[in-house]
Amino acid sequence: MGFNLLYFSNVKFEFYHGVKNKIFSQIDGFVYNGVNVDLLYYENFKIFFKNKFLTYVNLPLLRNFYLLYYLIKFNLKSYSYLYVRFIFPSFFIFCIVLISKIRNNNIKILVEIPTYPYYREYPKNFVFFILNLIDKVFWRILKYFVYKIITFSEDKFIYDIPTINLFNCISSFNFPVVNKKWAEYKNLNFISVANFNFWHGTDRFINSLSKYKPNNFYLHLVGEGEFLENLKNSIISDSYLNDHVVFHGFKIGEDLENVYKMCNISLGCLGNHRKGIHTIQALKNREYCSYGLPIVFSEDDPGFRNSNFVYRVSEDENLIDLNHLYNWFINISVSSLQIHNYSKQFSWNLEIKKLLNNIS
């Protein structure tokens, strides 16, 4: 392709390692397909551009203003495209677009919205009610300036802006951690890696464990998040759950790999319906797949429709029939290696090529 693209992200990389890996993998996909990419981003109270340190940010809440300041300083005339990772509320996207268009009227703006709709992800209070109103107002303006929206939903238009529908992809393809036939496993060790929130629905699975009390089910929770304390409190008075639910805390690298090696099945989101989302391409589903693990989740994930290594539970608050789940597990007809190989279609090199074909 041979053009220049500026990637703009305000994500706190120090807290969202999965998103950081995804963004750098997207950039690798652009480069693989012949695009020159420069990244402006924030991490650990610092602003970086082209992986070079620019300045410190004393208050993380001010990071958007620092990023905008440097956007004003840059020579944007050399860029054909600006790729903006979603920022809420859209007032900040409007500022980015305004600055970019003033500096280079020919630049085309691409905005990625990873989750849509997204309003129910935020607290139901007065502050976010006002922020939602601001967000909606500025999208009415942005539709005249944003070229395309990148989405992992199946929407053809978002805010009257045409979309490019992509598969959500993973940054690396891990080796399968399972080396036996499913029926040979006496115990089911579930792994769930998340920044735990209400939409993960982990409480549904814990409540199901509490009801059925299977001796051979164990749940390994890896990560942190604002909902984690609720989960910990829910097992305090239940001796069975104390023995069958393990909180590993935040893990990366070899420590995370070691937890994966203990497990033979994965637990995705069981509560996306709580935020009004029924079709979504969860990044974690793809990561679990790359480890060769069967997956349990509730949403409609286009990447796994009709996959016989996926156990899809109902999109409601009903408990999960763990006896039925176990019988399904021991009769899975594909191997861990076959599940792992399935994940190879979720490649950013392929999806970025699809994106480029849509904007050329």
Topology:
Blueprint: E1 4-8, H1 17-32, E2 36-43, E3 46-49, E4 52-56, H2 63-73, E5 81-85, H3 91-103, E6 108-113, H4 126-142, E7 146-151, E8 157-158, E9 161-165, E10 188-193, H5 202-212, E11 217-222, H6 228-235, H7 239-244, E12 245-249, H8 253-261, E13 265-267, H9 283-290, E14 295-297, E15 310-312, H10 322-330, H11 336-342, H12 348-359
Parallel strand pairs: 1-2, 1-5, 5-6, 6-7, 7-9, 10-11, 10-13, 11-12, 13-14, 14-15
Antiparallel strand pairs: 2-3, 3-4, 8-9
Helix pairs in contact: 1-12, 2-3, 3-4
Structural account:
The protein is 35% helix and 20% strand. The protein has twelve helices and 15 strands. Strands 4-3-2-1-5-6-7-9-8 form a nine-stranded mixed beta sheet, with helices on both faces. Strand 8 (157-158) and strand 9 (161-165) form a beta hairpin. Helix 3 packs parallel to helix 4. The termini are close together.
Characteristic terms for this protein:
single chain; Rossmann fold; alpha/beta; 9-stranded mixed β-sheet; 35% helix; 6-stranded parallel β-sheet; 360 residues; globular
Total count of strands: 15
Radius of gyration: 22 Å
How does CATH name the architecture of the largest domain? 3-Layer(aba) Sandwich
CATH topology of the largest domain: Rossmann fold
SSE class: alpha/beta
Largest sheet: 9 strands, mixed
Give unreliable regions as ranges.
Answer: none
The percent of residues in helical segments reads: 25-40%
Q: Could you name the CATH homologous superfamily of the largest domain?
A: Glycogen Phosphorylase B
Question: Tell me, what is the CATH class of the largest domain?
Answer: Alpha Beta
Distance between the termini: 9 Å
**Large-scale geometry:** globular
Tell me the fraction of residues in β-strands, as a range. Answer: 15-25%
Supply the number of structural domains: 2
Strand order of the largest sheet: 4-3-2-1-5-6-7-9-8
**What's the order of the H and E elements?**
EHEEEHEHEHEEEEHEHHEHEHEEHHH
Average residue-wise pLDDT = 94
Figure out the total of helices. Answer: 12
